[in-house]
Amino acid sequence: MSRDYYIAGNWKMHKTRAEAVDLATKLVAELADGSHKYLIAPSFTSLEAVALIVKGTRIRLGAQNCASEEQGAHTGEVSVLQLKDVGVQTIILGHSERRHIYKEDDALINKKLLLALKHGFEIILCVGELLEERESGKAEAVCERQIVEGLKGVPAADLDRIVIAYEPVWAIGTGKTATPEDADAIHAYIRNLIGKLYGNEAAKKIIIQYGGSVKPENAAELMAKENIDGALVGGAALKAESFVAIAKFKAS
Ligand code: 13P
User: Fold this and answer.
1) Do residues 151 and 109 touch, judged by C-beta distance below 8 A?
2) Domain for residue 139, yes or no?
3) What is the pLDDT of residue 252?
4) Residue 205 to residues 15, 41, 50, 220: CA-CA distances in angstroms?
5) Is the overall model pTM greater than 0.85, yes or no?
6) How many domains does the chain have?
7) Has 187 been annotated as catalytic?
8) Ligand 1 binding site (Cβ under 6 Å of any ligand atom)
9) Is the pLDDT of residue 149 over 70?
10) Does 252 fall in a domain?
11) Ligand 1 centroid – CA 233 distance (Å)
12) Residue 196 is part of a domain; what is its CATH number?
């Protein structure tokens, strides 16, 4: 495959600073000889401590969200300027937990994405359908809307800093994984959509991660699919052993 595999760990709202430092330290050691692209996204409170550990290694530092404004009276929010200041390189946006628990809509996600791009970040834009949307045959339409609206105003020149993560909501934290075939079908649909929006070269290059109950046991099988270029891992990213096993999957 011409695209590099990209394996990312989203630690969600887990780990104290000491626990985050401990996990990051193990990952740096274990993945020093890894051959793919890696990222870990700890909570805001651990970013600075983890930044010191991953600096200069092959593991990128990610944040799980950012504010839609640069600075100002926005109690409880964290700005791109603050994230840049502590060494964050990538920001995860539009995660289903942000969309569905915290009611972030496509317009807000798009505003955040444009601001993050302006400040030089790489973005992992998460998309994915709810169970009822899949069951009513709307999975592709939902992903299409989230991508078209999420990338509104993004010029082709910035597309190399965009990664898409397809995370069917019904597969997140449930132990239910989309079959590799089902996931690959949506990934192919997304790649085709990027082709329509940005042209064939962009479509060939864009990294599309799969997320939703990725584990050491299913990683290789998912990643063997033509359009699956990596993983955005939740639960299994919280232990060095399972994340390393996923990160070092053997491509077939
Ligand atoms: P799980 O791997 O725990 O299903 O979480 C996936 C996810 O939401 C990653 O962002």
Assistant:
1) no
2) yes
3) 65
4) 34, 23, 29, 21
5) yes
6) 1
7) no
8) 10, 95, 167, 172-173, 211-214, 232-236
9) yes
10) no
11) 5
12) 3.20.20.70
